[in-house]
Structures are given as structure tokens and as C-alpha cells.
TrEMBL record:
Gene: SLC25A11
Family: Belongs to the mitochondrial carrier (TC 2.A.29) family.
GO biological-process terms attached to the record: lipid transport
PROSITE patterns: SOLCAR
Signal peptide: none
Organism the protein comes from: Podarcis muralis (Wall lizard)
Membrane topology, from the record: Multi-pass membrane protein
Protein name: Mitochondrial 2-oxoglutarate/malate carrier protein
GO MF, any single term: antiporter activity
Amino acid sequence: MAAGTRKPKTSPKSVKFLFGGLAGLSAGLLRQATYTTTRLGIYTILFEKLTSSDGTPPNFFMKAVIGMTAGAIGAFVGTPAEVALIRMTADGRLPPDQRRGYTNVFNALLRITREEGVPTLWRGCVPTMARAVVVNAAQLASYSQSKQFLLDSGYFRDNILCHFCASMISGLVTTAASMPVDIAKTRIQNMRMIDGKPEYRNGLDVLVKVIRYEGFFSLWKGFTPYYARLGPHTVLTFIFLEQMNKFYKQFFLSA
């Protein structure tokens, strides 16, 4: 190395950000393993149960009801991982003396149980389930309805292109429907006590305060990046789900 040339140093903040992201990854994976698999599994089972013997699928209203049911159950199962995920991703933004310092999702769940009690794992469960009801009623029902519409149009066949287009439509509908309840859920799960009182009373209180102090359309602030995240996620979710259902029917049900 030439004289006088300094070796670049890694910023402590960037190191903390990197390891904070990796710590939150375990919580994100556990959330997907609990919430997503539960809701998709229940939706698929109920959808097949309510499909008539001649192959006619349920109407849109029943699809929405099935989606609500699947979402509520999945959200209840996944709430502990959701609480850990919210806290771990927010930890780096807190002052050093207020950080919780969870090392991974299992450490977070154990410490929350030990320090705050088991019910804390389901803090914000009601707004989380409310969000899941809205999201899944919008996402699952709109996907099934969009797919059925595309197939009935005669321009699509039941293949990956059809699944892609239907899931992109579903992602757009889901983004518009879920952002307000997502804001309420996130703020409640991440709230702190102020002078011995919780920052918000419930999800409705969050929405009222956001509209009052930040404006009505702030409920959809960040719509484009939200859709940019949710759109590909929805596409991959339904394409993989359709392929797995196809292989399951081909190799197990037909055997």
C-alpha cells in the first residue's frame, strides 16, 4: 500500500444496520412460516370444499369470506413472530438506552415472555387480525376473481402468464385496501408508554390521529414503494402456490 494511503474504514453505523437487518431476518422467516402457510393452506382447503361438484367456484362474496377466515386464523398464529419482527426492525432507530437488543427471533420471544408475560406476544393481535381480514379478503378473493375473469375472457389459459396478470391485479387491490390498517397495526405494536399511558387506545384511535395530524391521504403515503414490494411478493406467492397445487394434484391425488 502506498505511503500516506489510508485503508477505508467501515462505519460502526453501517455494521449495526447490517447485523440489525440479519437479526430481523429470522423474525421475518418465522412470520412467513406461520402466517403465510396457515392462511394459504386454510384458503385452499375451504375454496375446494365450497367448489361445486361440476367445478363451479364460489362467488366473489364467498371468496371474500373464505379469505377473511383464512387471514384471521393465520394472523392469530403469526402474531408472536410479527411482534418480534416489528420490535427487532425498529430497535436500530431507538436511542441506545432504549434498545432491546434481541439477538434473534427466539431470543426475542423468550425475553418478551419472561420480561412482559405471554399475553404480550399477542399485543396488537386485534388490529393484526383486522389487517389480515382486509388483506386476505382483498388479496385472495381478488386473485381468484381476476383469474376467473381472465380465463373466461378466452384470451388466457390456466398457465403462469394468467397467474402473473391476476396476481398483479390482486397486488394493486391489496395495496389500496391494506395500507390504512397496516399503519394502525404497526403503530400499535411499536408504541410505547407515555406518562404511564399507552400512546394509542386502539386501531381506530391511530387512524383518527393520523387523519387529524397528518391528513387523510397520509393513510396511503408511500403507495408506490408499498406496491413495488407487495406486487412481486403477491406474484411469487401465487405462482408458487399454483405450481405446488398442480404438482400435488398430479402426483398425489391422481395416484
